[in-house]
From TrEMBL:
GO terms for molecular function: ATP binding; ATP hydrolysis activity. PANTHER family: INTERMEMBRANE PHOSPHOLIPID TRANSPORT SYSTEM ATP-BINDING PROTEIN MLAF, PROTEIN TRIGALACTOSYLDIACYLGLYCEROL 3, CHLOROPLASTIC. It comes from the Bacteria. InterPro entries: AAA+_ATPase, ABC_transporter-like_ATP-bd, ABC_transporter-like_CS, P-loop_NTPase. CDD domains: ABC_Org_Solvent_Resistant. Gene3D superfamilies: P-loop containing nucleotide triphosphate hydrolases. Residues 2-238 form the ABC transporter domain. This is ABC transporter ATP-binding protein.
Amino acid sequence: MIQLNSICKSFEGRTVLDDIDFSFDDGKTNLIIGQSGSGKTVLMKCIVGLLTPENGEVLYDGRDLIHMGKKEKQALRREMGMIFQSAALFDSLSVLENVMFPLDMFSTDTYRDRVKRARFCLDRVNLIDAQDKYPGEISGGMQKRVAIARAIALQPKYLFCDEPNSGLDPKTSLVIDDLIHGITVEYNMTTIINTHDMNSVMGIGDSILFIYQGRKEWEGTKDDVFNATNERLNNFIFASDLLRKVKQEENKAK
Ligand SMILES: Nc1ncnc2c1ncn2[C@@H]1O[C@H](COP(=O)(O)OP(=O)(O)OP(=O)(O)O)[C@@H](O)[C@H]1O
């Protein structure tokens, strides 16, 4: 579990995050949603330690990220897996070598065991047949799956995904969402996803934090979204005509 207590962050006197409290649970896909510029990326950066909040606590299963020493921070980093907006693969390395990269960097296992682990992760994302290909030879969706395999290679306790569906078509996005949700439940990870994607909200929103102008405006689950009365949330979620119509139909059916 990752717990945020009263997180505040400002840049040059301008408040960007204001007193955010939230708990991200294990075994759930926790989504951070909000309009462009609302503070999602800054919050994610505060959570992973790339930015330091002026105030507040980020607790990783009770361990205080902001006040921990360098060694403890390094150890914690090894428990984190990250999936970036672009898949961020190394073009000159094969798919297998990409997945092996964090293992080569941090694992003390033998080469044989590292290869075994990398192949296991590739198999989990259904890409074992592509292990010898290079990133330039596979589709964007496949690249994201390689990035997922790489992110779970070191068996992280915490998984961070920044806009994992950006640049993907809706069908491929569903595959990626299902995969992230599946591994989250399977490995009981604390997964945090920054997203704009309403399909993700409705599909894998086990827990949703909606940020509006740097403040926590609403929290709930995908099942709560349809009945939420928060106007700012509704304006954000039902900005698309299609979703607004679905909500109207649901209300009529009640
Ligand atoms: N290093 C920085 N220095 C100054 N201002 C910053 C910095 N980083 C972010 N901001 C500001 O903080 C606010 C929140 O930005 P943030 O990137 O977190 O938004 P976001 O919700 O992730 O948006 P998007 O969905 O477009 O990625 C913005 O007004 C942005 O200009």
